[in-house]
Fold these 4 entries.
Entry 1:
Amino acid sequence: MKTVLVVDDDIHISKMLDEALGRDGYIVLHAYSGTEALMVLEKTRPDIVLLDLMLPGTSGEEVLSHISGIPVIVLSAKADARSKVELLTGGAQDYVTKPFDLKELSARISLRIKESSLSPDSPISYDLITLDPLARAVSVSGAPVKLTRTEYAILKLLIKRPKQVFTKTQILDKISADTPDCTDSSLKIHISNLRKKLRDASGKDYIEAIWGIGFKLEADDKNKK
């Protein structure tokens, strides 16, 4: 059974999640402050964390900065885009605005746990794109798409965490081992070329530029050729 840690000081929400997730077959742990959440995380390793931001004691943002290797879904009443972007670049895998739909949240939990449990060599799919790490190959709707080494490294990073915004610095840092020749000045060109190849193969824009922040992978059904 998978374990979910709910970090929220709202007793009503915690009880509701306890009942709903329990019915879905999860073991549910609770922390009602940021300080308590850090204590729980020192003793156990849940499969996923549902994290509120407005917590007594240590803030949700501070708790997030201490979590590594565990998927985090932020639950917050903050709905502005900047807050979401900051949290997604800060390590959260998803962001759900309160009030939320329990069925949608359950689906997101299942997806994030599945993503985190995949073998590093397992093929990764997003919408029409499939990336095969063993073959170092990419296909769109089953048709192969030729990418350069740098383009492949960028897509591999983005496809592992779709919809998460990565800053230019984060991208350069995470792909540096595979693409030492990629620089701050050339990164935008590589991303532009990757975006065009995916768009030509699918008719969709998959890479979205978040002005002044970075890039994320998100399917756009509009043909922007």
Note: The first helix runs from residue 11 to 23.
Entry 2:
Amino acid sequence: MKMITAIIKPFKLDDVREALHDLEINGLTVTDVKGYGRQKGHTEMYRGAEYVIDFLPKIKIEVAIEASKVDSAIETIINSAQTGKIGDGKIFVTPIEQTIRIRTGESGVEAL
């Protein structure tokens, strides 16, 4: 089993969720996060004053899936989240040692 963590632009969340659903990947966790990479923030004007916005709003998606679905899930996330502009995000893949469903006590792939 693997954990895919993707940091994407907020307006791409629905596209990614629908694309993963089409792959029959139904469970995911979404968190509002802020950060920066090469974008290094930007400046905005508010009531005539210029402000530097260091951290940009992003969405973090976490999906626990079977190892056999990792490559197709990564490709799907890239295709649905990509705009071709700086700040599209990152994808991280980490191993999961154990998964347990609290309600039933199922473990392993059955718990996903």
Note: The chain has a mean pLDDT of 90.
Entry 3:
Amino acid sequence: MKLVIAIIKPFKLDDVRDALSDIGIRGMTVTEVKGFGRQKGHTELYRGAEYAVDFLPKIKLEVAVEEQMLDRVVEAITSAAKTDKIGDGKLFILSLEQVIRIRTGETDEDAL
């Protein structure tokens, strides 16, 4: 089992969710986060004053998947989130040792 963590632009969330639903992903966790990478933020004007925005709004999406679904999930996320502009985001893939569904006690793939 793998945990896929995607950091994407906020306006791409619906596209990514739809792409994952189309390949059979039934659940995910979404968190609004802020951060920066190579962009290092940007400057904005507000009421004539310029100020720096150091941390940009992003969406953190977490999906636990079976190993055989990993390539399809990665492809779905990258194709749906890509804008070909700086700040499209990143994918992190981690191994999951164990998953337990609290309500039923099911474990591993049955818990997904």
Note: Residues 54 and 85 are 18 Å apart (CA to CA).
Entry 4:
Amino acid sequence: MQNFVYLVGDQNTREALVVDPAWDVDTILGHATKEGFKVKGALITHTHFDHVNGLEELLKKTDGIVYIHKNEAEFLKGMKGNIRKIEGGDQIKIGQVEIKFLHTPGHTPGSQCFLVGKNLISGDTLFINACGRCDLPGGDAEEMYRSLSKLASLDETTMLYPGHNYADEPTSTIANEKRFNPYLQTTSLDDFLKYRMGY
């Protein structure tokens, strides 16, 4: 269950957001400081414990803004003043770097991915040669199929940065996933459900 925690920032303004702060906030902030970035908040792909267990500590140390999909916000308690509810298609900037929010339900109702130029941070929606579980509370295999279809339509040169280290390499491309990921090769919802859920 090795998590990837990413920094998305502007090389000129030196401002950054942390994607899914978890486990070791001091190390995350220390890395940001070492690279000369000031953390201004967090981008949350979804609220499973292994992705947000460091969020409260991060906010105590930065008092930043938390960008989370509106369908997921209810699961964060005691952070009301810091939360910005997002919908799919919304865009923000950190410095001059533009971040587009893609609502990708299936793993959870409010799962979202972040598109930064031709870089996709996919949380637990799309992994290298795999996809997120749909059998946990709030999971929905039909929604996952539609979300994966949306991601498969992105430019094939888009780099993929998944939420967990489940593969031999830490990154991939949409082209490689369309070629090798069995969950992107199903040609219908019925086929996906049979493969993913054993229906």
Note: The chain has six helices and 13 strands.
